[in-house]
Amino acid sequence: MLKTRVISALIGLPLLFFILIKGGALLTFSLIIVSVLGLNEFYNATKNIGLRPFKLFGYLASIFLYLTFDKLRFSEIDLFVVLSIAFFLLFLANKKYTLKDYAFTLMGIVYIPILFIYIQKVRSLPNGVYAVWLIFIISWITDTSAYFTGKFLGNHKLAPELSPKKTVEGAVGGITGAILASFLFAWLFPQTNMSPYEAIIVGGIGSLMSQAGDLVASYIKRSCYIKDFGNVIPGHGGILDRFDSILLVSPYVYFVIKYFL
Predict the structure, then answer these.
(1) Which pTM was predicted?
(2) For residue 20, which of 50, 58, 116, 119 sits 20 to 30 Å off, Cα-Cα?
(3) How far apart are CA 67 and CA 63, in angstroms?
């Protein structure tokens, strides 16, 4: 399993570097693919609890979000209002879906493409070509540090009802790793316009957001009686298994950089 995860990372990381550095249409297209795949995983998971989300609406809404993000200059609220109006008009016109089906259709849109789009929003900031890496550094260093700290030092369960393997020691290790990595990144790349000492705070809080995102995904999987969302990424599972922590870190990094730094 670990060998497969490493191989996937060796293939995926250069691709991620290329996409984030290029930005623009390539990043938009990549996020559309990731969002649609993630939505499909989420919608398939809810079938296990007797739901039938309106998949096509979710996919089209994701594409609409990304294609209008930079063209029409919609705010997040404007986009949400437009989608909500379209959503409820469809609800009135189509009676084969239940109210729960529509509720989880909308939940998937909010949870996945609307949160993923903040990767593009961070990349679009003046210093975004550097700042966007904070999202992945905080999320993945938290995951890695928490895993190894918990594996060797973990004794106290963090949230056994949601994720039995997570420990308090692992959570502390994740926060520590994210703080150190964020500090080092800000020191090496002053173009982020963030001092290394500001990065300590950003990394620490970001790690908490990362772990919260992981627990949200664990809660959804446990509620839907599945172990993984999918198997599209060998050794990691599905899109949501690999990017669950990023979903909450992305908007956090955007708002911190845009409004506080």
Answers:
(1) 0.92
(2) 58
(3) 6
